[in-house]
Each structure stands twice: as C-alpha cells, then as structure tokens.
Amino acid sequence: MLSKERDELTANKGKPLGSKRSTYEELVGRREYLLSPISSQDWPNLPTVRAEGLYLYGLDGKRYMDFLAAFGAVNVGHNHPKVLAAAREQMEKQIHGAVGVTLHESVLRLAETLPEILPGALDMFFFGNSGTEAVEGCIKLARNITGRPGIIAFLGGFHGRSYGAATLTASKSVYRTALEPFLPSVYHAPYADVYHSSHPDDPAQCTKEALHALQTILDRLVHPSQVAGMVVEPVLGEGGYVPPPKEFLQCLRRICTENGILLILDEVQTGFGRTGEWFAAQVFDVTPDIMAIAKGIASGFPLGAVCARRELMSRWTPTVHGTTFGGNPISCAAALATIEVIKEENLLDEAKRNGKYLLDRLRDLKAKYPVIGDVRGIGLMIGVEFIVPGTDREPNPTAAKKVLNECLSQGMLTYPCGQRSQTIRLSPPLNVTRDQIDEAVKILEQSLATV
Ligand SMILES: Cc1ncc(COP(=O)(O)O)c(C=O)c1O
Question: How confident is the model at residue 285 (pLDDT cuts 50, 70, 90)?
Fold first, then answer.
C-alpha cells in the first residue's frame, strides 16, 4: 500500500476511502489502524468474504484450501450445512441465556452426549467460551478440590493467553515476555519430544530422560503432596505438532495416580477427531481425571468446557467460578450437530485414512528434499519441520516462512508452529478428499522449489 493512502486512512480513522466497496489494500490499512498489533501483525491476515468446506474465498477473488482449519476449530469443514441449520434453528428460538440464571435444553443435551465420546468417565461439565477459559477452569477446579497449590506443566506446551493458561504455556518464550509475575507454584518439566531431544532415534531413552527430569522436580522442588494437577497436551500443538511416545503419557498417568495428582489433558486442539479418535487420550490409552476441550467442539462457534468425573466436579465450591456467555445455546446446538456430523460422515476413520495418506506423501517429499528434517503426526495433525540441510537438525524458520508464503500465493493456507516457527502444520478439515490432498502436496512441492 502507498504511504499516501496509509496516511489518508489514518486521517480517516481507518474508515474506507470513498464509498466504494473495501478493496484489499483498504482492509489492510484499516486493520493496521484499528486492530492491536497483537492481531494486525499476525500472519497472513488474509481478507476473506466466505467459507465453505475446505475452502476460504478471498476478497482478492481467489479460492484458498484451508489446511489450518482455524487451528482445528472447523474439523467438519467451514459452514457445514447441518451445523448451520442447527445454529439457525436455535438462534430463532433464543440467542442467549446465562446458564445458571436460565436453563436451556441444548446445554443439557450436549452434557448428556459428551460422555458417549469422551475418554474414561468424564461425565460432568462446566461450559465456557474458549480453550484458554477451559484451561483456567481446569486449574481452578484442581486447586479448589485438592487444596494443593502446585501445578506441573510441560516445556513445549501451549494452553492459551489468559494468565493461568499463559503461565502454563512454554512453547515459545516470546509468549511470556514482559508478563511477570505469573501464577505461583507452576513448575515446568520436559516433554518427551523425541525429534528435538538428544536421542532423536530412541523414543524410549527420550521418555526415560523426560520422566527422570520430572521425578527430579518432584524430589527437589515441589513435593507431590503439594501438587494439585499435571496439565499436558497429549500431542504438542503450537509447540511443534509433536506426538510423544505412548509410554510417556502412560507414565504420567501412573505418577499422578500414585500421588493423588489430577491428570489434566488439554485436548483443545487434539479433540473432536483431529487425531483419528474422538480424543487423543483414546489414541494413547490414557484416562484423564479432568480435560479441557474447545476449538473443534462447535465448528467455529465459541465454546469450551472443563470435563471431569462427577465425583471430582461435584466437589467444586459453588460460586467460585462462573460465566456470562459460556454454554451459549447456539454454540451448544452447533456442538451437537458437529458431533452428529462426525459420526454420520465417519470422520474418525476419514482422519485416520486421510492422515496416513498425507503422511506417506509428505514422507516422499522428505526423501527428496533435505530441507525437510522431519515429518510427523497422528491422524490429520501433521507437522513438516524445516532444517538447514547438512546440519544436525538446525531449525530453518526462513525456509518454513518462504514455503508458507509461496503456498498462500498458490492458494493454500497453512501456519507455522514450533519453538522457532520452523514447522508447518497441516490440519485440514477431516473430510478433505484424496484429490484435495494431492493438490495440497503438489502446491507444497512447488513451494519447496523456492527454498
Ligand atoms: C492446546 C491448546 N490449548 C488451549 C488453547 C487456547 O484456546 P483459545 O485460543 O480458544 O483460547 C489452544 C489454542 O491454540 C491450544 O492449542
């Protein structure tokens, strides 16, 4: 955009120049004026006007394949007709009613339905609006019912932006910059991140060392009797799309059980079919005491939940937590429809099948392009990590950024993750087709030619 136009927009307080419909440049200018740099400087700020299935339709008239699916929030695809119909029907009846002050059927029906798909015996719920709120609720619940202050979180984990969740977050130090003091009594242990460990070819050794470090924290820093909960992502999301060895999560379960610590799984990104099961807990055979869910739950309508066993949840002191918008009727109706769609369209199987197909195709690319250091994932939660060729896994965020930009210019949206943003995440809607995957891999390969 020309600096003259930018000056005019600033003088015009971000309002569109003239009466004509917003052009791409005008939108960008208004964004910079009106939105905090926190959002306006994110990437790519793609102006879109419509979304359907896998596709986002840009203001520039182009169609984009959405291989991010809003960070796993639209697992059944954008604007699924069943989700739209359910939301519309509810909207006609009642848009809002604060749960507790009023009561509506969709929140109860959702609470009745969730235990059918959740791991273990999670059968009581507190509904909020987002992932970060679900994590806050988990921390408050665990502390409130155990009377213990300590929380163990893991390096590489991302749990949200509100203060409690930001305290647990350790995927990038920049997310923690100039925010202190954080919540007290939070301790970070290493995650069993095999590729980035000193034993990239030995998952068992990596697991052993991560667990040893955790034991050291419990021996030397915080006695287990003082720990309320252990909060862990079953697959690192923002931290690099990293599935840990199964044994790691199973050992965490054992350590928690032995010490009366509540195991809290953050399934905000891994939930609702993303990993080929309803939840990653089912992939890893681990049963949490408490779970945070959000994102994919309602196909883009804001909703999240703290899920716990009745025996735990019913001990949460009334009034110690609450919400105005959480469990909104439209979001709950959309969630019920989303669960139906996942069942009807067999999307768990689709995620497994499509995920394997995409993973195999990406491994072919890795064999051809030494700039790809690792390809990993479960279901349709797949990461492609870029390294400096010829080095020992030196992160290559420059290559990742170039590929991301080139993919976007060829009509495919993805997003970086990982400590240095050196990994590209591929998390399309679960009903992506083989042809669409082939097209995405072709775009990715053409983009690789630029690095
Ligand atoms: C694992 C995980 N937990 C929590 C959050 C926070 O969710 P929200 O952005 O809805 O607050 C995210 C968001 O990316 C996430 O990936």
Answer: very high
Pairing of strands 412-413, 227-232: unpaired
Distance CA 25, CA 6 (A): 9
Question: Distance from the CA of 380 to the center of ligand 1, in angstroms?
Answer: 17
Q: Give residue 13's pLDDT band: very low, low, confident or very high (50, 70, 90).
A: low
Tell me the CA–centroid distance for residue 295 and ligand 1, in Å.
7
Q: Which atom of ligand 1 is nearest to the CA of 302?
A: 10
Q: Is 77 in the pocket of ligand 1 (CB under 6 A)?
A: no
Q: What residues contact residue 5 under an 8 Å CB cut-off, 6+ apart?
A: 17, 25, 29
Q: Whose CA is nearest to atom 3 of ligand 1?
A: 159
Number of residues that make up the chain: 451
Complete DSSP assignment for 375-389: EEEETTEEEEEEB-T
Query: Separation of 42 CA from ligand 1 center, angstroms?
Result: 16
pTM tops 0.90, yes or no? yes
CA of 132 to the centre of ligand 1 (A): 6
Alpha carbon distances (Å) from 381 to 132, 262, 331, 427: 20, 26, 24, 5
Stated as kind and residue range, the H or E segment containing 416 is strand 415-417
Q: What is the mean pLDDT of residues 219-244?
A: 98
pLDDT at 335 over 50: yes
363 within 8 A of 374, measured Cβ to Cβ = no
How, if at all, do strands 372-378 and 304-308 pair? unpaired
Residues 63-113 have pLDDT tens digits of 999 999 999 999 999 999 999 999 999 999 999 999 999 999 999 999 999
pLDDT at position 40 is 87
Q: How far apart are CA 313 and CA 141, in angstroms?
A: 7
